[in-house]
Amino acid sequence: MIVFIYHISLYLLLVYIFALSLFCYGFFPLSFSPSTKSSIKDIPGSLDSIRLDTDSYKPHNSRAVLMVIDALRCDFVTQRTNMPFLNKLIEDGRACQYQLEVHPPTVTMPRIKAMTSGAIPSFLDVILNLGSPQVTLDTFLYQMVQLQRRIVFYGDNTWTNMFPDLFTRKGENVDSLYVNDFYEGDRNITNNMRLEIRNYDWKLMILHYLGLDHIGHVEGPFSDKVPGKLKEMDGVIEEIHEAMKIWDEKFHSKSLLVITGDHGMRDSGGHGGSTHPETHVPIVMLGNNCSESNAENFLQIDLAPTFAVLMGVAIPYSSIGAMIDPMLNHVPPLERIYATYYNTKRLIEKASVFYGNQLKEQDFFTHYKEAKLLHSMYLEHQDDSEILQKALDKYSTASRNLSRILIRNYILYDIPSIVMGIVICILTTGLSALLCIIPYQHIHINLNFKFTRWLVLVAAGLFSKYYLKIIIGVESNILQNTFFNHALFVITFTSITIHWCLLDGVIPLLNKSTKLKLLKSPGTLLLVGSVFHMLSLSSSSFVEEEHQTWYFFNNSWFLLITVIEFRIINRTIRHIKEEKANEVLLLHCRRERDEFCISAGLFFVGHILLRRWNQTGDKWQHMPDIGDWLGKEENKFWLSVILLFGLVYLFLYIIRFCGFLTGVLSMMACMLVYYYRAMTGIVSLWNITPSKTNSCINIFWINLLEILLIGLLPKLYRTVMRKSEPKTSKMLSTVICLTALLSAMIHKPHNVVLVASILSTSQYLVKRIDHIAESKAENSLLKIITHVWLGKMFYFYQGNSNNLATVDLNAGYVGLSSFNFTRVGLFLTLNTFNGQILSFLLLIYHLVNGVTHEPPLKSMQIEQSGTIVKQSLLKLLGLVLMVPLTFYTIVVALMRNHIFVWTVFSPKIIYDCFYTLLVFIQFLIISFNFG
Predict the structure, then answer these.
(1) Which of 200, 62, 203 is nearest to 144 (CA)?
(2) How many Cβ atoms from other residues are within 10 Å of residue 744's Cβ?
(3) Could you tell me the CA-to-CA distances from 158 to 34, 128, 580, 754 in Å, in that order?
């Protein structure tokens, strides 16, 4: 069977995505804890041989309010001017403040899961955060409902999605992800709270305020709106506190208010990463006789068992948290030590699964035994407070050590899935490398699928599955006997068989005498840079500061090709002088050299500024940058100038890609972008008052639709009339124009300059490559790798990083008044990966033009073929993408127990896997455009 090589490249990328899915399936399990539920009957009835009174385990608060202020940082509370009433209570000893440590990912859904269940959520919950699926884990909410204790809720609809049947009454924010809502949603929560505090049929009220988080996403933690929002929250706390006094007088019992944040907020705004401001949140307790704590901080998962004890319900089965001891200070001593023993005993039972017979040899078990001995002594001498304190300290030490050990052990990897994914990645990458060595004149190979090989591989796979599961006893979801797993194995070994058969067809075509063009100067730098980048991924510091790698090698490459062309121009001038040719020609060459020097100087000055436009990475991310300066209210004039400059700059480059009518529409679109930002109050326009009208947005969409139709209708006409398609890049020009204009609309105003900059940078580099490349093949090769590097560099120029917190959620809601999953997803994707998407489209555009026009230097007649260019583009892009990512999956698998695996290594895997999917879509676009 004859198969075209570019079809093989598409197949290999599809298989590669399948392999990455297998790897992620094993590396990112969706849940670390079972769905088993606890029961009140699980409460221990004895301490070794001593019988305990289970009736002493009872509620210690008649009703409670859990107030979650989204993205509440510790320093927001400690600044007295922000929350004066709350700080006054803390100073007077009527409230206690502690600090909670939050595990990454620091996004809402997994944090709610951690607070209510006491379990460590899956890292992939950061993706599920958008959908917020129903929780099957045991939680203290579920335990309360089982005992007919009513719960009411108002706030973030993430809660109602996760717990759809647990609330007696609820009022959720329908558009919790709509980050432009600073006040309305919070006002609705407060109004519902005021009605609810007059009802007496509930035991727990949960309030989740979102305004502070939204301000952080849009304007950052240092916005002038933050103090006002915190004062608003302080007023809510005061209202609840006054209501608690009435409850306590009416019911002669204790009520409780707990204020905390689900996560913090990074200094640049947003969250999702692992910086200190994101992973440390305050927890303030009002209403109980709490005490100060010597502990530096507690864990967020400690909240679940603590709340369960305070409300007198069974501790959730999935909880691996310890107690927040000072929050139990008001609990009678006998009941307090009983509750602490109960939780520690649970943790010991969970640890026994991992330690087996070696359990009794561990230090935490020694503390547990000593605590039980002291506990039994206290039961005999209940007036001895010294024994009580020693027993509590021993239980606390044991439970905290157990909690941290269980956190490490509850991260379960599916090793067979990881291994299978990596093996297929390696095989696919190796075959892609071999395809790149095939000479250009070969555009297809013979594929002879051998059924016997498939049978042998499937049989070997089934035997391996049986051996691992039955003989060795490996625990793995992928080894279970389900239809899905069987289909997975068949697909896996079918793809390996096809790889094997493709290898038979590729090997005879390999030309051992072919020299890799990159080994010749100037391509050597591209090869060295690619290899260095790949190896640097084995270091957590290089992953955190990956932008430094791309900045260094890109600028080195820019300088190299600029110097080479400058030498070519000088050589030409010297040759003309020696030949004593026409003086007019000599003057023209000198003028061309002067223009080149000016353009090169402006080019490098521009990139020096862009490097400092948005600070990124980890170590220097907190340092102020140009974007921060422009974002200040007092610098609105300069932001307006920069936005205007960026839009004019963008328009001047867009008109190079399009005709007159499209140019007019593009100019109108640029004007509408500025007008929209003026209407939202971000920039100034002749003292126009900001307005909420979206009429300019609607006109903007109509403009884009008209531009699309101008480019699409001629193509549709030729298709319907069955006329031959001319080899032009008009449709590509339209797509580039639309992408650039839409990017200008959703980008932060100061980042609009980046959209125009990538267009101009691509044009500058293509000109240099056209002048220094010695053949069409080398020309294409240099352009492909250069644009891959260019996309990476502009990704970091925009302020992105390998940290999830740098995703600009505000970009997803430009022009929207409510949450729309499709549009928000598309806008976020375009904004986050804007550099890669635009650089890819520009690469196609320049390669299409290279096919359409005669190359300056011809090495072989076949190099003028569009099919050859498409084939080389697919092969090289696939290889450039696969090699570093395959290496990185191996690194991550080997470092799965590394301290930074979830904070540094894992987020990059998510980014790269998503981008790989984008590349596959881009491959399909290539096949469509290259006919």
Answers:
(1) 203
(2) 26
(3) 21, 11, 79, 35
Give the chain's length.
Answer: 931
Question: Which of 310-314, 513-517, 554-558 has the weakest average pLDDT?
Answer: 513-517
Rounded Cα distance between 672 and 814, Å, is: 13
Instruction: For residue 317, give the nearest of 457, 540, 175, 140 by alpha carbon.
Output: 140
Beta carbons within 8 Å of 328's beta carbon, 6+ residues apart: 60, 306, 309, 310, 336, 339, 340
Residue 312 near residue 58 (C-beta atoms within 8 A): yes
Q: Which residue type sits at 260?
A: T
* Nearest-angstrom CA–CA distance, 327 and 336: 11
Nearest to 768 by CA among 753, 790, 740, 751: 790
Specify the DSSP element, H or E, that contains 171: strand 169-173
- Average predicted confidence (pLDDT) for the chain: 84
Pair 130, 177: CB distance under 8 Å: yes
Buried/exposed code over 401-415 (b: 16+ C-beta within 10 A; e: otherwise): bbbebbbeeebeebb
The better pLDDT of the pair 522, 265 is held by 265
Determine the 3-state secondary structure of 56 from DSSP. Answer: helix
Judged against a pLDDT cut of 50, whether residue 844 lies above it is answered with: yes
Cβ atoms 848, 394 nearer than 8 A: no
CA 489 to chain centre: 30
User: In the predicted model, is pLDDT for residue 856 greater than 50?
Assistant: no
Query: Tens digit of pLDDT for each residue in 85-125?
Result: 999 998 888 899 999 999 888 888 889 999 999 988 777 66
pLDDT digits (tens, 9 = 90+) for 285-301: 998 777 776 666 899 99
Ranges 240-249, 666-675, 893-902: which has the least confidence: 893-902
DSSP for 456-494, written as a single string: HHHHHHHHHHHIIIIII----GGGS--HHHHHHHHHHHH
Per-residue confidence (pLDDT) for residue 438, from 0 to 100: 78
857 confidence band (pLDDT: 50, 70, 90): very low
> Helix 5-27 and helix 483-506: axis angle, to 10°?
140
H or E segment and range at residue 355 = helix 333-355
> What does the alpha-carbon distance between residue 605 and residue 764 come to, in Å, rounded to a whole number?
14
Phi/psi at 299 (5° precision)? -100, 150
Q: How far apart are CA 351 and CA 349, in angstroms?
A: 5
Q: Using CA atoms, how far apart are residues 203 and 64, in angstroms rounded to an integer?
A: 6
Of 303, 302, 305, 259, whose CA–CA distance to 282 is shortest? Answer: 259
Displacement of CA 132 from its chain's centroid (Å): 16
CB atoms inside a 10 Å sphere around CB 513: 6
b/e per residue 428-440 (b: at least 16 CB within 10 A): bbebbebbbebeb
Cα–Cα distance for residue pair 457/655, rounded to 1 Å: 56
Instruction: Please tell me the distance from the alpha carbon of residue 269 to that of residue 805, in angstroms, as a whole number.
Output: 8
432 confidence band (pLDDT: 50, 70, 90): confident
Tally the C-alpha atoms within 13 A of residue 630's C-alpha that lie toward its C-beta: 21
Nearest to 47 by CA among 350, 335, 390, 372: 372
Give the separation between CA 189 and CA 666, rounded to whole angstroms: 43
pLDDT in tens, 563-621: 998 888 888 888 777 776 677 777 888 888 888 899 999 999 999 999 999 888 877 77
Q: How far apart are CA 492 and CA 499, in angstroms?
A: 11
Q: Is the pLDDT of residue 141 over 80?
A: yes
